[in-house]
Each structure stands twice: as structure tokens, then as C-alpha cells.
Specification:
Elements: E1 4-5, H1 8-38, E2 45-50, E3 55-60, E4 72-75, E5 88-92, E6 97-101, E7 120-124, E8 135-139, E9 147-149, E10 158-159, H2 165-168
Parallel strand pairs: 1-10
Antiparallel strand pairs: 2-3, 4-5, 5-6, 7-8, 8-9
Length: 174
């Protein structure tokens, strides 16, 4: 069965969500991430990030779940077609394994919990996946192998139309 395109709710609510709290939240996260990118801490520390829904404490840098080495922070290439251009993330240098993104985009208490017992990250798959631009949930810290598709009432994975992927990257809820 072909995946259904999920855009009605996004088109109806995207403007009000960004105007109500997303814009201020996005600006404050953007300023924090820019300062973090220019100065790397010598030791592991925590920094609380407050959103309208909750407070999340981030650990820097996260460890690779395979070899337990500290991740290396990098920035997604500027011409990334999946809506992640300029987004910070961690990768394991030894395993050459993606660990997690270094932002709060897609993390919400409305999301299911992963095997670690934490809130998951809601995100959009890339074009090379079985369901291009399919919406799914993963462990936000990259520690467990949690993966769950967001499905509609018929059990079909929801997806974002290709023309809206770039638009979605500006919102904190996906």
C-alpha cells in the first residue's frame, strides 16, 4: 500500500505554531547552538534548554553506543536536500557512526518513549529510504535502536510532501 501524504495538519497549524512559540524558541536555540559551535568545552557539562512544553538537559558530547567514545560535533553540509542543512550533529570518529543531532528539534513529551525511557525525536526520512520523507521516531540520544513509524488510522506511514520538507525544517516539532 502506498504511503499517504501528511500535509493537511501541517498546512493548517504551521503558521500558528511558529508564531506562538516556535519562532522565539528557534531563535534562542539558534543563538545557543552558534555559541556552542565556536567554543568547545574542555569537560562534559550540562546546559538546560527550556521549551514551552518541558526542560531538557543536554549532555556534551554524547558517547557512541558501540564503542563508548565521545562523539565529534559536526555541522550538516549546506546543500543537504533533507532539510538538515546547517544542523549540528555528533558522529563517532572511530566507528564512523552517526550518533544524534545536537538540537532539540523534534523532541517532545507527546512523542513515544524509547527503550532508554526518554522522549524520542520525531523526524523525516531522507529521499533514499523505502518511504521517502516518511515521519518516524528515533532515540533522541542515539543510544538505543528505537525506531517507530508514525502511521495513520489505516496503519500506513505518514510522509511529508517533498515540496514541504524544507519548510518543516524550520519548526521545532518535526
Amino acid at each position: 500500500m502506498a504511503p499517504r501524504i501528511w500535509c493537511g495538519w501541517l498546512l493548517q497549524h504551521s503558521h500558528s505554531l511558529s508564531c506562538q512559540r516556535g519562532l522565539r524558541h528557534k531563535q534562542s536555540l539558534s543563538a545557543w547552538n552558534e555559541s556552542e559551535a565556536t567554543s568547545k568545552p574542555a569537560t562534559v557539562r550540562t546546559k538546560p534548554i527550556t521549551t514551552a512544553a518541558m526542560t531538557i538537559t543536554t549532555l556534551e558530547p554524547p558517547r557512541c553506543p558501540t564503542c563508548y567514545e565521545h562523539g565529534i560535533r559536526q555541522i550538516v553540509n549546506g546543500n543537504n536536500p533533507n532539510g538538515n542543512a546547517g544542523r549540528p550533529y555528533y558522529i563517532c570518529d572511530l566507528c564512523d557512526r552517526f550518533i544524534c543531532f545536537d538540537d532539540q528539534r523534534g523532541i517532545s513529551p507527546a512523542n513515544p518513549r524509547c527503550r532508554c525511557g526518554r522522549y524520542t525525536r520525531r523526524q523525516i526520512a531522507g529521499t533514499e529510504k523505502e518511504v521517502p520523507h516518511g515521519i518516524h521516531y528515533v532515540c533522541a540520544r542515539g543510544w538505543c535502536s528505537f525506531y517507530s513509524e508514525e502511521v495513520d488510522q489505516d496503519g500506513v506511514q505518514r510522509r511529508v510532501p517533498a515540496r514541504l520538507v524544507g519548510t518543516c525544517s524550520g519548526y521545532s516539532y518535526i
